[in-house]
Amino acid sequence: MKRSENVINVSAKEPREAVQQHRAEPGSVVRIAPEWKVLGGFAVALMLSGGAMWGSTLGIFLAPLERELGWSQTQIYLGVSITYLLTPVVAPLVGWLLDRGHARRLIIGALLTQGLVFFGMSRMGHSIVIYYMLCILMFSTLLGVTPMPLTKVINGWFVAKRGLALGILFSVNYLGAMVAPIAALSIIDHLGWRQTYMAFGVAVLLLDTGAAMLWIRENPEQKEPAAQLGADKLEGAQRRIFLDAIRQKEFWVIAVWLVFYGYSFNSTSFHLVPLLEEHGLSRAKAAVAQSLVGFGGLTGNLLAGILLDRIRAPRLATLFATFPLVGLVLLATWPGQASGYIMAVSLGLAVGSEGTILMYLAGRYFAPDILGRVMSLELVVVVAGSALGPAVAALLHDHFGSYDELLALNALTFMVGALMPLGLKGYRY
Fold it and tell me: Is residue 103 part of a domain?
C-alpha cells in the first residue's frame, strides 16, 4: 500500500515553523510557496543580466577598446551618457505595461534582447555609431530588468517581509556585479574582449531567460480587482491616482534625492578602474576593487533588507549614504590599495542599500495600482543626474588631467544626497 505524504506549504508568513514541522514528520514533502519561487527566478535573472555585467565591466573593456578600435575615453563613456536620452520615452511605456499586468513578458523580452546585444558588441568594428546604437539598445532593455518591474511584482507577492525580499533580490544583482569584472578581466586576458562579450550573451540567453520563463509570475490575486474593473475604467482611475501622487511632497523629495544619487554613483563607478589606477593600483587590483563594489552592494542590500522592516527607511537611507564620503576622503588623502578597496566597498554599501530603500519607499508612499508609472517617472528624473555622471567625469579628467576635481565634487553631491531622505515623514501605505 502506497504511503501518503504530508505536504507542507512553506509560505512567506511562517517558513521557519513549516520547516520545523517538516523535520518533525519523516516522509513529509516541503512545497515551496510561489512567492519564493518568484524571488528565486528574479535572483537568477538579475545575477547575470546586462545591468549587472555591462556597466560594472566597462572600465575593464576600456583599454582594449581604445587600443584596437581607436576610440577615446570620452567617446566610449559618451555611449553610456547618450543612452539616458531614451529614458523619457521608454520609462513611461514600461510603467504603463507594468500597471496593465505585463511584467513577465517585459522581463523575458528584455533579457532576450540583452543577450543579442552582447553578441552584437562582440562583432563591433571601428564605427563609433554602431557602438552608440548598441549602447542605446542595451540601455532600453535594462529598463525591463530594473527595480521598476521587479518591485512591482515583488510587492504583489510579499507584504510582511517585503523589505527582506527586496534586500535579498537586489543583493543578488550586486553579486553579479562583483563577479563580472574579475571574470571579464580573466576572459579578456586569455581569449580577448570579443569572446568576453560573446560569453556574456550566452549567459544571459541561457541562464537568465530560462529562469525568468520558469519561475517569474505575477500574483493572480492582485490582478483580479483590476480585471473586474474593466480596461477603460481602470485607465481612468489609475490616471487620477497618478496625478494625485505626483503632487505629493514625498514624490519631489525622492526625485531630488534620485538626481544626486544617480550622478554620484554613475560618475564614480563607471570611472572606478582608471580612477584607482591613477591613485596607485595596478589594473588587476583596480578590477578587484570594481568587484568589491558588487560585494559592498550585496552586503548593503542584505543589511537594508533586514533593517527596513524594523527601522524607518529615511533614517537608514541617510546613514548608508554617508559611507562613500569616508571612502572618497581616504582615497584623496591616502592613495593606495587599502584606501582604494575601502572606497569601493563604501560605494557599494551606499548604492546597494539606497536602491533597496528607494524601492521600499515607493511602495510605502504610492498606491500599488500606479506604482509602475510613479517609478517610471522617478526613473526619468534620475536621468538628469545619471546621464551627466560618466560624461562629466570624463570631461573633468580630460581637462585637468586627473580625477582629483571629480573626487571633490562627488564628496559634495554624496553629502547633499544623504540629507534629502530626512524630508520624508510618515508612510502612506
Answer: yes
Rounded mean pLDDT of the chain?
A: 79
Sign of CA dihedral 339, 344, 349, 355: positive
| Mean pLDDT for the stretch of residues 114-132 | 93
Quick check: is 349 in a domain?
yes
Question: What range does the domain containing 294 cover?
Answer: 32-216+228-423
pLDDT at residue 188 in the model: 93
Flag whether 10 is in a domain: no
pLDDT digits (tens, 9 = 90+) for 333-367: 888 888 889 989 998 888 778 777 887 888 788 87
The pTM is what? 0.61
Report the C-alpha gap between 16 and 211 in whole angstroms: 25
For residues 38 and 421, what is the distance between their CA atoms, to the nearest angstrom? 30
Q: How confident is the model at residue 268 (pLDDT cuts 50, 70, 90)?
A: confident
- What is the domain count for the chain? 1
Q: What is the CATH number of the domain that holds 347?
A: 1.20.1250.20
